[in-house]
């Protein structure tokens, strides 16, 4: 998948595992979704997901909506990532 590196001002191609490796090494992966997404309870709506690793085994996802960072976040372990981290659904993927 095509990824824009906003720190090094480059573009690269990588896969799902490559993005996980970037997070483990301290980078943040931003997924710009093609449309707004809402959780199953109707509580939270977002259009960008910001993913990073806490310690290589735990990950955190923060959210933005229309350019505003939301106060909510979710935590995930390595096993959760297959269910919750979907860069293939993003219209744009950035490394920061």
Automatic annotation (TrEMBL):
The protein's name: Uncharacterized protein
Organism: uncultured Anaerotruncus sp
